[in-house]
Amino acid sequence: MAVLGICVIGEDEEPLKGVRVKLEFTGLARGMSDEKRTDSEGMAFFHGYEEGPVRIYLNGTSYGGYYYEDGDKINIWK
Asked: Which pLDDT does position 14 carry in this prediction?
């Protein structure tokens, strides 16, 4: 099972705290993750999911599709 970190960064290049993050798995293991909130460093971590394609939602809005592997960190500018 993989670990994925999502880092949410504001227009001012500062991390955003409290952003709701949810993952939609678009490969064979379809489904949605539990919702997480970013911490003071703008990070939300997801554990125990299969590597593969995923769509990332911030506060209910899609921010695109990605492919991830164990230990990846995806940066998203909001």
From this structure: 97
